[in-house]
Design goal:
Structural class: alpha/beta
Number of helices: 14
Strand content: 15-25%
Number of strands: 18
Distance between the termini: 69 Å
Shape: globular
Oligomer: single chain
Strand order of the largest sheet: 1-8-4-2-3-5
Length: about 475
């Protein structure tokens, strides 16, 4: 079977304050694609692409791969578009698997977003236009189920941050950390991330940020959903794109790609078993991360301690901590090569491509032999891993979908929406939406093994929720709201 290799990486960014002068997302992705071709040392590869695969961003293009193919002169390329809710690692894995199977010889995975351009336009009151969005991709990948439970939406949990914050409090409570102690821990962790971002030439914020500034809410770092301030959340208001150029080893040799550019994908593993947050029997667990991670490493005789470089998906701190806990990774080691999503930048639905490009660059430089890049989709809903090396894998590329295995070991609880009676808080947060009063929200364990998602506007209770441990607290629930026992 042919061996797939990553031969070109391209990362494009802009920080243009005048949105009228800034490149649109399609132009940014096209630039990244061209850079990947140049990086390979064989730019003619761009004209013979068999497949162009793009994760959906906050743009309107129906088939961006087709426009990118036309710009690159690769008009015969099949185009693939994946919507939100599909792992970015899935595109990478599918490209490598198709090459390994001999179905294609070349592929590009490219994505990007221009969130900073959108932000500047909103501030200036400018209406932006994008190129025509006609046509449709040859293949559309979409999740089979809804990412959110109706009960979560009914409680106003439309943004991921509130759900992640509730998982964070469950994670903290299970391990017995005091509220302030855990806030210190995650702030210090992300402060270390910012120091790594300062050394990353492609990072959006390239300066170390003190833990105290990250931890505490301020005008420049407002609270989003307790205990998460802005700098503990992915920053999607960035203009960034990345492209990964793959081909078979035979094609690389035929096109004259220097071997020092080759990076080998050893494994791509994923779990697509979907369970809404509120239905998970253990809010802080992530069985898919453990099973998919082991599926990537074990066949090669590797443990996390053997990995030279690690990139744990860092949209919110609980994602980092849950993956590390499931895999037995020491939180004291470097857990990112980019600097993490708040600092390196988290372009909408594209960060794994940025992280993989950085991982490949470091492996080329000899900064390690093996590197693991993790992926998350939804609210820790799906899990994926890419294992990379500058050396070929013994036995060749491995692809594994472990969804069925994960489903068998992932207990769920039925969720009800009109529960009345006593319940126990399993995880909670306080939402701080701009221009609105803070609102408490909780996932509670009710009778008969059931779950409910409930809210409170009681300011006294909300104050206590941000000062003391509320996981395990008994509350009374009525019409979707909760209060403390009298």
């Amino acid at each position: 079977m042919p061996d797939p290799v990553l031969v070109g990486i391209g990362v494009a960014a802009q920080r243009e304050d005048d949105p009228r002068l800034a490149m649109d997302p399609l132009a940014l992705m096209t630039r990244a694609a061209r850079l990947a071709g140049q990086d390979s040392g064989a730019p003619d590869l761009l004209r013979v692409l068999d497949r162009i695969m793009v994760p959906k961003g906050r743009w309107t293009h129906n088939d961006p791969g087709r426009a990118i193919a036309a710009a690159l002169g690769s008009r015969g390329a099949k185009t693939v578009l994946s919507t939100v809710g599909v792992l970015q690692q899935t595109l990478i894995g599918n490209a490598c698997a198709a090459i390994a199977a001999g179905d294609i010889e070349t592929a590009m995975v490219v994505g990007g977003d221009a969130g900073y351009r959108l932000l500047r336009a909103r501030i200036a009151g400018i209406e932006l236009t994008e190129p025509e969005a006609d046509g449709s991709p040859d293949e559309l990948l979409a999740p089979k189920e809804e990412l959110r439970h109706e009960a979560e939406l009914r409680a106003g949990l439309r943004m991921p941050v509130g759900l992640y914050a509730m998982m964070e409090t469950a994670f903290r409570a299970r391990r017995g950390y005091a509220v302030d102690v855990q806030r210190d821990r995650v702030a210090e962790l992300y402060s270390r991330f910012s120091g790594i971002a300062a050394q990353n030439p492609d990072a959006w914020i390239r300066k170390p940020i003190p833990a105290d500034f990250i931890r505490n809410a301020s005008d420049r770092n407002p609270m989003q959903a307790f205990p998460y301030t802005k700098l503990l959340c992915s920053s999607w208001n960035v203009d960034q794109a990345a492209a990964l150029l793959f081909c078979s080893t035979a094609k690389a040799e035929a096109m004259g790609v220097p071997k020092e550019r080759w990076i080998y994908p050893w494994a791509s593993t994923e779990s697509n078993h979907m369970v809404p947050v509120c239905a998970r029997a253990q809010l802080d667990a992530c069985q898919g991360a453990r099973i998919a991670g082991q599926a990537a490493m074990t066949p090669f005789g590797l443990s996390p301690a053997d990995l030279d470089l690690i990139e744990l998906y860092s949209c919110f701190p609980v994602a980092v901590q849950a993956y590390a806990a499931e895999l037995g990774i020491d939180l004291n080691r470097d857990l990112t090569v980019t600097g993490g999503m708040p600092f390196a930048g988290g372009p909408y639905n594209n960060y794994v491509l940025q992280a993989t490009a950085r991982m490949a660059a470091l492996l080329r430089e000899g900064r390690g032999r093996t590197g693991l890049v993790s992926s998350v989709s939804g609210t820790l809903t799906k899990q994926g891993f890419g294992l990379w090396s500058a050396a070929p894998a013994e036995g060749g590329f491995l692809f594994a979908d472990v969804s069925d295995v994960v489903a068998r070991v992932s207990p769920v609880k039925p969720v009800v929406q009109d529960y009345q009676g006593m319940a126990t808080i399993a995880g909670y947060s306080v939402l701080h939406d701009p221009g609105q009063k803070p609102r408490g929200v909780a996932i509670v364990d009710a009778d008969a093994g059931r779950r409910a998602v409930v809210i409170t506007d009681n300011l006294s209770v909300i104050a206590q929720m941000q000062a003391t441990e509320f996981s395990g607290v008994h509350v009374k629930v009525d019409e979707g709201r909760f209060d403390l026992e009298a």
